[in-house]
Design brief:
about 75% helix; BCAA_transport_permease; membrane; mainly alpha; transport; 2 strands; 11 helices; single chain
């Protein structure tokens, strides 16, 4: 019983991080119909920026989050405008190839700048542990969960209660109708890609305090985010959160009950589940009809 409860605690924390990580990819896919294969690399860039902010300036990751978000948005906007928009109306393989190439370039640049030696942001609370009724959890992981949930809440408010957010939702529902009513689709696509990158940068900064990372960590993050997007349905925050919690609990359970290889089994189990979901319910396991968020 003790192990089961600890598994649930760890799964919820992991799921919160996965939700923030995947929401950026879900948004880009839902609005632009593009799968950004460099999404995980954006996350790794955010992790390195958080590490640098602490290493060279003594800035805690929580304090650095607004900076990471602004930088992520700017990077996403530029990448979208220069690389993605020009190939958006071409065959579907073109955006995939462009973002795949971008991922390879980012990996090479990060390797050149930082080598392949793993890095980890050491905050003042990195070695602190919360103990409650025999259960323990790292303070850094609690900070990651709380920050991720807050950012997801702000993200939902942005989509549902701002003019730009409503324009993005309109473009996701019907691109041509949105264009007819005067919405600048190119600008909305750039903004959506920017917000998606900002979410990835923020997730990377939070992750950097909990585990080590290196330039080639990105592909696994992209794959896990893709799994969550498929399970959660197209772009719904509620669906993404539910799917992320589901994947987090699966991975945590297998890690807890199958030592040493459980994490790998969790990833494999998630992909097997995706195959089943695509065959039985193509719109996603947690798609909520009519939900705004």
């Amino acid at each position: 019983m003790h192990t089961a409860i600890q598994v649930v605690i760890d799964g919820i924390i992991l799921g919160g991080f996965y939700a923030l990580m995947a929401q950026g990819l879900a948004m880009v896919f839902g609005i632009m119909r593009v799968i950004n294969l460099a999404h995980g690399e954006f996350l790794v860039i955010g992790a390195y920026l958080a590490w640098m902010a602490h290493q060279y300036f003594g800035i805690d990751v929580i304090v650095a989050l607004p900076i990471l978000i602004v930088i992520g948005f700017a990077v996403g906007w530029v990448v979208s405008r220069l690389l993605v928009i020009p190939v958006l109306d071409r065959p579907e393989l073109m955006p995939l190839l462009v973002t795949f190439g971008l991922a390879a370039v980012i990996q090479g640049v990060l390797t050149w700048l930082f080598t392949t030696t793993p890095k980890m942001t050491i905050a003042s609370y990195s070695n602190s542990v919360l103990e409650f009724m025999g259960y323990s959890v790292s303070v850094a992981r609690v900070v990651m969960l709380v920050a991720a949930i807050v950012l997801l809440g702000l993200f939902a408010l942005f989509l549902n209660h701002t003019k730009a957010g409503k324009a993005m939702r309109a473009a996701a529902e019907n691109r041509e109708a949105a264009r007819i009513v005067g919405i600048d689709i190119t600008r909305i696509h750039c903004a959506a890609f920017g917000v998606g990158a900002a979410a990835a940068f923020a997730a990377g900064g939070l992750f950097s305090v909990t585990q080590g990372f290196y330039p080639f960590s990105g592909p696994l993050f992209t794959l896990k985010a893709f799994v969550i997007v498929i399970l959660g349905g197209r772009g719904r925050i509620s669906g993404t959160l539910a799917a992320a919690m589901f994947v987090g609990l699966i991975e945590s359970a297998l890690s807890g009950y199958v030592p040493n290889v459980g994490t790998g089994l969790g990833t494999a189990a998630a992909f097997i589940l995706v195959v089943v979901v695509l065959a039985v319910r193509p719109r996603g396991l947690f798609q909520l009809k009519g939900a705004k968020a």
